[in-house]
Amino acid sequence: MVLLDKLTAYVLLLLPQSGAGGTINILVERFNEGGGWMWPVLICLIIGLAISFERIISLNLADINTQAFLQRVKQALDDGGIPAAEEVCANKRGPVASVFQAGLLRADEGVDAVEEAVVSYGSIEMSFLERGLVWLSLFISVAPMLGFLGTVIGMIRAFDAIESAGDISPRLVAGGIKVALLTTAFGLIVAVILQFFYNYAVSKIDRIVAEMEDASIELVDALVALERGESVTGEKAIPKSIGENQ
After folding, report:
1. What is the spatial distance between Cα 140 and Cα 202, in angstroms, rounded to a whole number?
2. Has this prediction a pTM greater than 0.70?
3. How far apart are CA 213 and CA 232, in angstroms?
């Protein structure tokens, strides 16, 4: 534990100093004062940030201009039919393209089969988007709990020190309580930081899923129009029955 304390202090001291008193030095001092329970909270922060950064990068890569891609697929359906649309989807990354391709591969079985494929594969893609968020939520919950646990143990030690001293000294009591509360403060700070990343990821996933669902509905409508021999990108042709009545 002493070696880890020295290693952490060394790494933090390599960071740029800011402020007259040296903010990094103060953080190192407070971290060391918090005792051994600061380490589990720090581990929660490190792993939580790693998951957050991985999710942010993955979600940004999965996010595409859905409407522009949908228009390309529709144009491909008009120009070259389903094989051309499949090729467009195969050359595009992201969950929307994967769902489209899964539906187009079942196009020869009818529109109902396309809808089933889109729904099934959409659920799979949604689970991929949400991967890791359960662990991030776990660390958001665990970090404050570890901080509270460290505070309780610190308070017990503070009262043990008071009992051993045989004197209720304000300085002794205040010092023990201050050290004990550091773990709670650190745990809450970690939870707040990770909560921001969690909310960002959830909002990003909700938007991607909403766009994917809307685009999937338009894809099914386009396949229905293609099956009727109508233009996918242009205006729908007037049905013969209506034209004859006119």
Report:
1. 14
2. yes
3. 19
